[in-house]
Every structure is written in C-alpha cells, then in structure tokens.
Amino acid sequence: MQPTDKDLKEFKAVWRECRPGQLLARAKLVELAGRVLHGKKFINNVTIGDCLEVLKLIPDNSIDSVVTDPPAGIGFMNKEWDSDKGGRDKWIEWLARILCECNRVLKPGGHALVWALPRTSHWTAFALENAGFEIRDIQHHLFGTGFPKSLNISKAIDRKQEVKHPKNTPISESAKQWQGWGTALKPAVEHWLLARKPLSEKTIAENVLKWDVGGLNIDACRVETDEVISAEYGQRSGTGRYSWNLKKKKIEKQGLWNTKGRFPANLIHDGSPIVLAELPKARFFYCAKASKAERDLGLENMEAKAGIRTNAPRENEAARTKPTKNNHPTVKAQALMQYLIKLITPPNGIVLDCFAGSGSTLVAAKTLGHPFIGIEKFQGYVDIAKARLNNNH
Ligand SMILES: C[S@@+](CC[C@H](N)C(=O)[O-])C[C@H]1O[C@@H](n2cnc3c(N)ncnc32)[C@H](O)[C@@H]1O
After folding, report:
1. Which residues touch 90 (CB under 8 Å, ≥6 apart)?
2. Are 200 and 99 within one domain?
3. 357, 372, 352: which is closest to 105 by C-alpha?
4. How many angstroms separate the alpha carbon of residue 115 from the centre of ligand 1?
5. Which of 81, 325, 332, 361 to mutate to test ligand 1, by most ligand atoms within 8 A of the CB atom?
6. Which of 52, 60, 182, 258 places its Cα 20 to 30 Å from the Cα of 299?
7. Ligand 1 environment, Cβ below 6 A
8. Same domain for 374 and 315?
9. Which residue segment(s) compose the domain that 376 sits in?
C-alpha cells in the first residue's frame, strides 16, 4: 500500500496537532503512521505476522488498552503456537519481549487484561512484570463445563504390566492399591491478569487528564440488582446490624442510594448449574462459553474444517475432532470480551489484541464502537477473524 501525497499531508498535520488526550486523533495517527510509514492498515484490521515484529511498527503511547489471549505454553492440542518454546525461562522471555512492545505502545497508566491458565499463569505474570507492567489484580472466570484430563493411575499400572483392565476394575494387586487415584483436577477457572503500565504523572487524576487512561470503568461493569445498596461500594458493608443501620441512615441522609448495580468483582462465572450451586448468580457478572452459533457468525460462506476437540471418548477420534467453520480451538465469548474491554478502555479508545486468533476481542471492540488493532500469525485464523468482522447480522 503506497502512501499518497494526501496521506503524507494529512499525517504531518495530525502529527503536529495531536495532543495525548485526543482519542480520535490518536486513532487517526496510528492509522496514518501504519499507512504512511509502513504501507500497512492497522486500525480496524487484522494484520498477519509475528506480533513482535508488527508491534514494532506502532507508535509509542498510542493505544488505550490491551485485551489479549496469548498462548499458555502447555502445547494445547499439540498446537505449535502453544509450545513452551524450550522451557519455562525461554517461554517467559519470549512473552516478555512481546509484552514489552505492548507496554511501549500503551499509553502511560493504560491497562492490559491478559488471559492465562492457572497452571502457567505465574509464567504470564512474570512476563508482564519483566515487560514493565504492574500486576493490579486477577479476574477469575469460573465455569462448569471443563473436562478433567486426569490419568487413571490404576489403569496405567495394569497397562504397564500388560494386564487387561476392564472398565474401572483393577486387576493386578498393585493396580488395586491405586484405584481412585489420578493426576489432574477438573478445570473450572481461567485467569485474566489485570496489569497496568506505570503512570507517567504523579497522580491518577493528572494521568487520566493527560492520557485518558489509568482508571477502571466501574459503572459500565456494574452487576444489575434490585437490592438497596450503597452508592460508593455497591454492596451492604459493615459487619453487624448496628453498623449497617448507621450506614443506612447516613446514606439515606446524603441521598446516596445506588441504582446502578453492584460493584464489579474480580470474579466472573458462566451461569452454569454447577457454578450456581455454589455462587449466587445475582452478585457477579456471568457469561457462558461461546456457543457454536456465536463462533460461526459471519462464516456462512466458509467450509467446515477439522480442528476442534470435543469431549468424546479418546477411542472415537472422528467424534473428537469435529469439523466446524470456526476451527480455532480457544474462541472466547462475546459477552466476556465486551465486559473486559468496557472495564479498561475509555470511550473511543483503541483496543489492541496481538494474539487475535479468530478475532473474538476485535468483534467485541467493533460492537462497542472502539477502533481496534488485531495481529495474528496464521492466515487461516486471520481469514476467520476478517469474515467475523465483516459480518453484518
Ligand atoms: C489462545 S489463541 C487466541 C484465540 C482468540 N482469543 C479467539 O477467540 O479466537 C492465541 C493465538 O495467538 C496466535 N499467536 C501465537 N504466537 C503468535 C505470534 N508470535 N504473533 C501473532 N500471533 C501469535 C496463535 O496463532 C493463536 O491463534
């Protein structure tokens, strides 16, 4: 893409006039910088390539939030992109180099929400810190649909001794001793690490005024409730009846009743019966995993491809690898991505996802009216993301 004279003129004008706080001008600046300096369209697009290289082409302090779902380093479904890159330290170094670029392009005080599995989320947290971010919290997403990938130890012992092990019936003496033992728990939680680029100003207020970022959009993420709650905290606070009554009187006097909902917590759940049995639904934001209809929206003209693993038994490989149009194995739900984007992105702010996959973050940003930048290494996933983004339903 060759820049025209008009592009160059416009770029110089925007570059001269763009002050840090002008969100829309910033989006224009990033768009023009891509087009004019590198012949690439970054804004509202998915750029193909290694994100470490592509990120280097984006100007400093130009992005308002990073919402991204990087690999976990566990070799999920034997995907090369999820390999551990040669072990813990190498993986952390690999991710930290990419996150360092994210940190550079993010405005001071800007937030990142970075997905991680509990098993390797400490690696992701190290990479974030090594890249210059401050870890602020962990958003926990609970779900009831996980499938335990636990090895049946007594079965393994019988297999090792070449003894036939009928369903759940240990035969050898040593297998009987280990009946009921396994190697893993049922997965029921995923993490979204909430990190922040250090402020450039002395206070949050000064930072927000200069860069438009630094805070969390609490009101946009409140959880609806019919209960009477305090405006500030969004919940009944105080331990005993006496302290609550006192507080209630004070709130009533000041007219501070909250009608907007509960304060958002660092816990999200999927609304499934199994999770609801433990948690009151009304208190937390909830969001189920992406449905097939949602994953495939906009892909009507694409062919179904093999790729997704289902929970069918190991013996039935055909049923386990079900052909589907969006064959990305880790598609995130729209409601979840919209919630996360809302929490950390100012209105009109640019959202960056440098591990875009099938484009779930980008579709959510588009729905919310945010400019977005997506980067993805594999053409097949870029095609799916672009088709989902072009969907006009
Ligand atoms: C966990 S998936 C993201 C899935 C996405 N959230 C979705 O809903 O479809 C991570 C993605 O990062 C991509 N990826 C891995 N390494 C990359 C790199 N160095 N540069 C760009 N993309 C990369 C992989 O191809 C994969 O699609």
Report:
1. 84
2. yes
3. 352
4. 11
5. 81
6. 52
7. 50-52, 69, 71, 81, 328, 330-332, 355, 357-358, 360, 375-378, 381
8. yes
9. 42-143+190-223+265-390
Among protein residues, the one whose CA lies closest to atom 19 of ligand 1: 50
Close Cβ partners of 316 (under 8 Å, ≥ 6 residues apart): none
Helix or strand (DSSP H, E) at 343: helix 334-344
Token couple for 122: 């400490």
Rounded distance between C-alpha atoms, residue 375 and residue 393, angstroms: 24
Residue among 327, 338, 332 at smallest CA distance from 299: 327
User: What does the pLDDT look like over 50-94, one tens digit per residue?
Assistant: 999 999 999 899 999 999 999 999 998 889 999 999 999 999 999
**Whether this model's pTM surpasses 0.70:** yes
What are the angstrom distances between the C-alpha of 207 and each of 107, 214, 236, 340, 376?
10, 7, 31, 21, 31
Q: What are the tens digits of pLDDT across the range 274-328?
A: 888 877 666 789 898 899 999 999 999 898 987 666 655 555 566 666 788 999 9
